[in-house]
Amino acid sequence: RFEGWGPQGQDHWPERYPYCGGALQSPIDLESDLLRFDPTLRPIEVQNYNLSPNEQLTLGNNGHSGEYTSTLSLSPMMSISSLHNRYTAAQLHFHWGSSSRPAGSEHTVNSKQYAAELHVVHYNSDKYPNISTAVDKSDGLAVLGVLVEVGMFNPAFEHILKFVNDQKVKVPAFNIRALLPTRLDEYYRYDGSLTTPPCYPSVLWTVFRNPITVSRKQFLTLATALYSTNAQDSASMSLNNNYRKTQPVDNRLVLASFKERKYGLQTWLALLPEHG
Ligand SMILES: [Zn+2]
């Protein structure tokens, strides 16, 4: 159990969870000046994301059990195949703002916070038998982060939203690939952590450059469907703003698989790797 995200919340995480005050923490601000273009970063390839509707997934809407989001368990057939090891999918979940403030992404881009963020969590199945063994290992997890903005209606998102309420439900599987942006070749890459306690520094982060959209109505459904029950308080409160503040980058390298286009030649040259 942790205390939540408010003033009594994340600033106090390190007292009980030392890793939260340690190195390699996430999320971070993906600032242009920090980025280094890495031409060796290949497009992300996912396997078996196109699940059959005959398959069932479990959606846990965990507001009442002291957790913080709606978590969809994924099929162990799903994986990322383009990294050095195979990473098998375990679950996906969202972070979001509130109905009055559609700004709840965890990663920010040049300080811009998006409406929400999707995390598809995978573990290193070449090295570890399951996610609970992998979760605290330095090469244990790989998370795909997708920034979400309010705009066009998102039919794939609807597969989850239809079932978001305060209980555990079985939901028909669908094509999870449709929740990712069209382009899987443009992304940020860095070494970071879980964004909730115990904040293990075990995550190879991939945050896609291009956001997906959900409609305003879909965003409002997400922002108001879940409730958290505070033990000291009989009233349940709408669960929102469940994102962690950005953390120090320190001396980490933040790689980009793409070249920024909005800067002049000088910035450009500074971003290029040095010639031998
Ligand atoms: Zn997350």
UniProtKB/TrEMBL annotation:
The EC number(s) given in the record are 4.2.1.1
| Source organism, top-level taxon | Eukaryota
Note whether Glycoprotein occurs among the keywords.
Answer: yes
What catalytic reaction does the record list? Answer: hydrogencarbonate + H(+) = CO2 + H2O
Gene Ontology cellular-component terms listed: plasma membrane
What top-level class of enzyme does the UniProt entry assign?
lyase
Report the sequence similarity comment from the record.
Belongs to the alpha-carbonic anhydrase family.
Q: Know the name of this protein?
A: Carbonic anhydrase
Q: Source species, please?
A: Neolamprologus brichardi
Higher taxonomy: Eukaryota, Metazoa, Chordata, Craniata, Vertebrata
